[in-house]
Specification:
Strand order of the largest sheet: 1-2-3-4
Shape: globular
Number of strands: 14
Structural class: alpha+beta
Low-confidence stretches: 22-42
Distance between the termini: 64 Å
Radius of gyration: 24 Å
Number of helices: 1
Order of helices and strands: HEEEEEEEEEEEEEE
Length: about 250
Amino acid sequence: MMKSNNLYNRIYDHSFSLLLTFSFYAIFFALLLSCEDEEALSEIKWSENSFITTEDGTTYTVGYDQKSANNQDSFVEKRDDRGAIVWKVSHAASPIDERAVLVTLDDEGNPWVIFSVNGGSYDEGYITKKFTAPDAFENVYQNNYGQGDGAKVAVVAKLDPEDGKIVKGSFLGTHLNNGKTNSLNIKKIGVHNTEVLLDVETAVWPPAAGKTYEKMAGITDEDRVNNAFHLQLSLNPNLSEIWRSELKK
């Protein structure tokens, strides 16, 4: 009986030791992955500017032209390292106000631009039609302005660095309780590897993660800061889905 107990104790001690070892490595690798995620986020080059310069001296500048007392059309301009204009394009020439407000670069040097749009339009000069690649607004999170008119929403767009065409774009807005479009303002953009990150302010109910707009669950007016909801969105690079939507307080 004594030998049997000793054998049992040795097996128990060995099993317990293996369990501790496994637990140690599981925690170690979890912490390692967490640190890698934090390092990846820290590597993101956030932009809240209307211009950006690449390592080779190329500069992209975004803005808008005041076409009339109540109409603005967006533009994006590319200059080489000597300051010469490579191209300057307008992505909008419709009766709706459309502005280019932020620009950044992804890891491959492609420019990403944030536009603001004050309404929808069927005009051929609208942002979804004027200077876009085929299917640029197909199979994306939101391919049009939505219901209503006048509220300022955002358009996230990846451009072709060769000519400035929009190669992929999606609208981002919020909805009132009656379903009409309401304001969404992007304050910063960062693109890293396979993720598009946005710092966002919304006037009404922020979007939840998903492929179409759904109100963020569990949110109330008490979550507002200075009369707005502040959040960070993570989108896939094809702009077909919000991967993550997190409220900032």
